[in-house]
Amino acid sequence: MGEGAGVLAAMLSSGIGGASIGVTRFIAQDLDPLAIGAFRFGLGFMLLFPFALSGGRNWPQRGDWSRVAALGLLFFGAFPILFNASLAFTTAARGAIALSTLPLLTMVVAAVFKVEPLTKRKALGVCTAMTGAALALLAGFSEAPAKAWRGDLLMVLAALCMAIYSVASKPLIRRSDPITFTVVAMGVGAFALTLASSGRGSFEPIRALDSGQWAALGFLGAFGGALTFFLWAFALQRTTPTRVAISIAVNPLAAALVGALLVGEVIRWNLSVGIVAVVAGIWIAARPDSAPDCKAAADS
């Protein structure tokens, strides 16, 4: 399975991730962001762990464990706190559009660390996508929740965490396995979130959750946790970080649809136009590189 399989895995991961935004928005008013993250990644870890033990898989090398743990704290610790907190201020669709800054941030981080060349075509495609994201965020601003800008900013910071994780984890995944790497990183993050949640009393509201909210937590753990981030690691093993990040364009559409179904959010014209611009930018940036560039990125 080559680069095409990686791109498809990234798109599926982003689609499930978009649905997870809508589901998180559904329970964000009733459960602390720390507790949501602890449930999501704790359950995801428990579901993936048996698969990690099967089939004689390669685990991260001893010298890589500190880096894997640090990335786990960043992505499965800081990221869900920012992600879940943002959805207490903004809508699912706006949150997904803010998360669409990921390709730009990933492209910049990859260029800084010399993992991928920063080409004019990639820059044009990502900037086109970002224009669509800005349009979706700014148009109809008065109709958004009063503190929506805070949620948008928190989601952009979450995207930065994800960009750093995507770039820094690629060589570690290649030296181990997508499942074992994800299990270790997710386990570290889930443990940290559980400790923090227990210390803050964040688990107290779970006694009042209804069956629908428990089902939402189950979805976040099984699909939004285990499956989404295994697919993301699988994609990073097979293609470049920027191409993986570009798949995030699937995210806003899924989030808008789930948000409309669960919490009655309205899909307006500016979101639709923004999504079209994001898709156009993806098409530009995802076109094959020239042979030298493509080989350099693949070898990184």
Automatic annotation (TrEMBL):
UniProt keyword list: Membrane, Transmembrane, Transmembrane helix
Domain EamA: 6-137, 150-285
Chief place where the protein resides: membrane
Transmembrane domains' residue ranges: 7-28, 34-56, 68-89, 95-116, 123-142, 148-167, 179-199, 211-232, 244-263, 269-286
Gene Ontology CC annotations of this record: membrane
Record InterPro entries: AA-Vitamin_Transporters (IPR050638), EamA_dom (IPR000620), EmrE-like (IPR037185)
Membrane topology, record value: Multi-pass membrane protein
Compartment annotation: Membrane
Protein family (similarity comment): Belongs to the EamA transporter family.
Name of this protein: Drug/metabolite transporter (DMT)-like permease
